[in-house]
Amino acid sequence: VSQKLYVMSMASMVNKKITLCCTEKDLEGDVPEARYGHSINVVHSRGKKAVLIFGGRSYVPLNQRTTEKWNNVVDCQPFIYLIDLQFGCSTMHTVKEIQDGVSFHVSIARSDTVYIIGGHLLENNVRSPKIYKINVDLLLGSPAITCNILQSRLSFSSSIVTSTCPDEFFIVGGYESDSQKKMTSHKVFLSNDDIEFKEVEAPDWTGEIRHSKTWFGSDMGHGTVLLVIPGDNKNQHSDSNLFFYLISHGEEDNLMAQSCSQGSLEDQEDSMPLEDSEEFMFNTDGFISDEDMYNEDDEEDESET
User: Fold this and answer.
1) 10, 22 in Cβ contact below 8 A?
2) Residue 304 has pLDDT above 80, yes or no
3) What is the mean pLDDT of the chain?
């Protein structure tokens, strides 16, 4: 697990060929420890912006490890980090309302506010129904952070959030417990001072989705989510072990599922192929591009970022 911070931006797009620029950002001050399962959001206040990092999970510090528990992980301390990307300055903040570390939560940002929804607490193995409403005021000199706790009837972890417009979002997937996937989907509405949830009609889940124990995915933007379902583990070729589904926002607030493939699911003749232009490659100049050359030996598992 790395504690480096990378900033990715689109350098150019020509004929569906996208070039991304990836730069490593040097940080000074209170640098967040290496972690995963955290959230990163951008907040705007007083004409300025900052990156807010919260939560996540990390390995036990080296000086606390034993041979038997060498690879154990713990929830990170419930600190809030604010990073000024222009100067690379990172500051750590505590709020009395947040007493426990949380990982694999959903975060939604709007202007100067970030909502932390759900998540898993490793120490007592629960999924929190709390919503942390974090407000950031980027005052000159020292930012001010306040937090209000809202209660929700939802408790989940590892869900995916996608936006359909600045004030509306969908939450799809995730887990309600270690052995129970979250099969329901919810629409989230943000107003100036409140957040509302509405259960919406879930997609017509396929048999692979309903019976799988594991699923994961990512926001594709514009109300679309890519879900990946592991298939038959007896097959040694990892490509053929994955089923891909695009979950998109339909009419009347319902969600639709469409299977797609990367050419490895030979039995799904009606599936929609993923475009080659969605594959990106690093080059020596620190850019990522989707050049036509492809080397399967360079392929790595990027299921967690």
Assistant:
1) no
2) no
3) 82
82 and 132 both lie in a single domain = yes
Range of the domain at 35: 29-155
**Chain-centre distance for alpha carbon 240:** 25
Whether 33 maps to a domain, the answer reads yes
Domain-embedded: residue 296: no
Answer whether 56's CB lies under 8 Å from 1's CB: no
Same domain, 33 and 149: yes
Same domain, 180 and 210: yes
Both 129 and 174 in a single domain? no
Query: How distant is the alpha carbon of residue 182 from its chain centre?
Result: 16
Residue 147 and residue 228 in one domain: no
CB 220 within 8 A of CB 226: yes
Give the residue among 231, 130, 127, 218 at the shortest CA–CA distance from 180: 127
143 and 62 share one domain: yes
Choose between 244 and 56: higher pLDDT: 56
From the CA atom positions of the chain, what is the Rg in Å? 20
User: Which of 256, 209, 279, 242 minimizes the C-alpha distance to 19?
Assistant: 279
Residue 261 confidence (pLDDT): 56
pTM score = 0.81
| E strand map for 111-261 | 113-117, 120-121, 126-127, 130-137, 144-151, 160-165, 168-172, 175-177, 180-181, 185-190, 195-200, 216-221, 224-230, 242-249, 255-261
